[in-house]
Amino acid sequence: MMRAFASRQFLAFLVTGGIAALVNFGSRIVLNLWMPFPVAVVVAYLLGMVTAFLLARAFVFAGSTQSVQRSATFFVLVNLVAIAQTWIISVALAYYVLPALGVRAFVNEIAHGIGVMVPVFTSYLGHKRFSFR
């Protein structure tokens, strides 16, 4: 299992995922101007997910023999797990953990940044095994 993370493919996944994470993170900041933090986290995640699918299909798993429809279906299923991880961690950190630690500045940004990073490994394995076989 550790070999999967020591590969060019995983490195490409990190780069394309990093771009998608920037879309996710940046759009959450803008969306948060018009909607509550928990809702903005979900909408931003969806924008990042579309970006991630397009980049992963084109640059990480280009050799996939699955149809785009099948890949997209599994991609969404894998990301349902990831969005749950992102949302739970982001909201828990923003509303409970960071305030309890006395953090007052950039609480939403810190919480969301950590929340976006957590599902990297589970998502890679899910996409490699299911979304882009």
UniProtKB/TrEMBL annotation:
It is a multi-pass membrane protein. The chain crosses the membrane at residues 35-60, 72-98, 110-127. InterPro entries: GtrA_DPMS_TM. Residues 13-132 form the GtrA/DPMS transmembrane domain. It comes from the Bacteria. One of its GO terms (cellular component) is membrane. GO terms for biological process: polysaccharide biosynthetic process. Its main location: membrane. Keywords: Membrane, Transmembrane, Transmembrane helix. It is found in: Membrane. This is GtrA family protein.
